[in-house]
Specification:
Largest sheet: 5 strands, antiparallel
Number of strands: 10
Radius of gyration: 18 Å
Strand order of the largest sheet: 1-2-3-5-4
Helix content: 25-40%
Strand content: 15-25%
Shape: globular
Oligomer: single chain
């Protein structure tokens, strides 16, 4: 299996791939998510305490999907695409972090939570994000929400992903960098699978460029991956951080589409 494309085998995660699972519809989703996390964290040799705490945070996200994306009920006739998904991959920074993301196709209502969203002190529920915020802060990770597209099912469906990160213990070896050409082809395939539109790939000597859309380009060199998005400037990643680059590009394109939507309605 090509681990850069991903799958349901948690062993792809330490090797630089993204593993993705459909989340069972209904209240059993939280238990399924915890069992998946234990497998992934076992592959990464995370401690038992860290595994337990991260499982608590992930349970909150899975429960939110059940309660808010499906109104607390399992869909009677599940659609062929757009069902909740659980993703796991490593983000290769100076200190690598494992990323756990929960995707659903329901639109977010209200402001995006950023660690400052608080329920009423008298509320009996709605404190899931507070739990996620506290646990990720304890470990030096981060969390947030981003627009994205699904990975599994009949085709990519627009939606959102709530994610959090946990630093990986020292000792995880970064994947061996591939030649620029191969890395660019892998990124191109990952972006094409999310159906962002007509992608253009140009390969030269020791460098490749992927044109995603107007103003959004990815440069792949032997020692780095970088991309440029309107209003953001150029962002650079290590050459084996393909999954994070793809997720960032998918999210930026979704943000650009959302920003353009009011203009299209006025036309």
């Amino acid at each position: 299996m090509d681990t850069t494309i991903g799958g349901v085998d948690p062993r792809v995660v330490p090797g630089g791939g993204c593993a993705a699972w459909l989340l069972p519809a209904g209240p059993t989703g939280a238990g399924f998510a915890r069992s998946v996390l234990k497998e992934v964290f076992g592959e990464l040799r995370m401690s038992a305490v860290t595994t337990y705490d991260a499982a608590v945070a992930l349970s909150e996200l899975a429960t939110n999907v059940h309660l808010h994306a499906h109104g607390g009920r399992a869909p009677m006739h599940p659609p062929p695409a757009g069902l909740p998904e659980l993703w796991a991959y490593v983000r290769w920074r100076a200190r690598p972090e494992v990323v756990l993301a929960m995707y659903d196709s329901a639109p977010w209502q209200g402001p995006l939570p950023d660690g400052r969203l608080r329920p009423s002190p008298y509320a009996e529920g709605g404190r899931g994000f507070e739990v996620v915020d506290a646990l990720t802060a304890e470990y030096g990770g981060e969390w947030g929400v981003r627009r994205t597209r699904s990975r599994l099912g009949a085709g990519p469906v627009p939606g959102k992903a709530v994610y959090f990160t946990v630093p990986v213990p020292p000792g995880l070896v970064a994947p061996r960098p591939s030649p620029a050409r191969r890395t660019a082809e892998e990124i191109h395939a990952l972006l094409a699978a999310r159906r962002l539109g007509s992608l253009q790939l140009a390969i030269g000597h020791g460098m490749a460029v992927i044109c995603v859309r107007a103003g959004v380009h990815v440069w792949v060199r032997e020692g780095s991956i970088s991309y440029r998005v309107p209003g953001l400037g150029t962002v650079r990643h290590p050459p084996y951080d393909r999954i994070e680059v793809v997720e960032r590009i998918v999210g930026h394109c979704a943000d650009l589409d959302a920003a353009d939507a009011p203009d299209r309605r006025r036309c």
